[in-house]
Amino acid sequence: MPLLDVLRHHTRQQHEALHQHPLLLGLSNPITLADFHRIVLAFDAYYTHAEAACLADWPEDVPNAPVLAWLASDMAQQGLESWSDRFDFHHAPLDTPSKLAGYLYTKQGSTLGGHVISKHLERQLALIPHLDQWFFAGYHDNGAQWKQFVVMLETSGLDEDEAVTSAQQSFENICYFCDAMTLLRPSPIEIAHEA
User: Which residue ranges of the chain lie beneath pLDDT 50?
Assistant: First the structure.
């Protein structure tokens, strides 16, 4: 079975659980700007920790979404500052190509769904892709970038078990940060303005 299919099969439960997370329901339903702020800050916190754990080498010509740059643009647009240092979280090191590939499977794959979410945010909050919001908008050619990533996934002789475990953990780690951010009241922007 191709590694892509193996990853899809063995992460289905974690992936579906994330889609049903209370913090993220607004990405396909009515959403407030305060909810969008929480979502952006949750992903920024997660990816700050995850990207710092990426210790294995990665080919420069294979897509590796610049998520922290996109999130930084979103936060600047919304007047938010990163909350990543408020989380006492240790991300396991992504110190082999297979572990890194499992993580990138979740990161690169999110750009496909992100395109749909980006259109939803434009309708709901008037946030125009690549002008008012970047993280969910992703690349200008999300599909082409994903196809290029999949070619690498299937031709690099990666360790299947390591990749699957890493991908599963990535989904669970995102859920951890979403859980933590769900507890924030009032909204992060209101807290920032009160400080």
Answer: 191-195
